[in-house]
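User: I'm new to structure prediction. If I give you an amino acid sequence, what do you actually give back? Let's try with this one:
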Amino acid sequence: MTAAGNRRRSPGIRPDCPQTGGNPGWDGCGVLPGRHSEADVPVSRPETRRGAVTYYPTGELWEEQHFKEGKLEGLCAMYRKDGTLWRESSYAEGRLHGPSRSYHENGQIESVSHYERGRLHGAYEYNDRFGCLREKGSFGNGVKDGIYTTYDESGEVTSMEIYQNGRMVHTRKLDTSGMPVRDC
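Assistant: Good question. You get back a string of structure tokens that encode the predicted 3D arrangement of the chain. For your 184 residues, that looks like this:
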């Protein structure tokens, strides 16, 4: 299933999470679930907090956040246990607002998206661990809107879907030579 269609619960989402409200579609830092290693996610949110910094139970930096009047504001950064940057997202008035990026373990950009007032809005891209584009699309008010394209490992288009307000209105699957195999 494509990243944007993934609806299984990510190990990083808590049902009581204030950023997502337990929404299994997106986690608190604006990253699609299922696109990271489960070994990187603490079993439970660490209780050791020093201001806006959170640590893994073993002491490694996990998360840096900034607050204004008790609400998330500015850049949220999350790290893997080995100290590498896992994801970063911008917040305004406690909601995702602005650019959001996640990174593969090797440092390659995994996903790039944009939020407005807590909802996906604008361009979305997902890259494999080698930095090759695998999915590209756009969102409007939290739902797919416009052309959504998937690519194979060599960069060839495998499917194109057209969405209007979250509803797929057209899809085209392509074979390895780029010829349509199904046009709906």
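You can read the tokens as a compact description of the fold. Here is one thing that stands out. Residues 1-51 have pLDDT under 50 and may be disordered.
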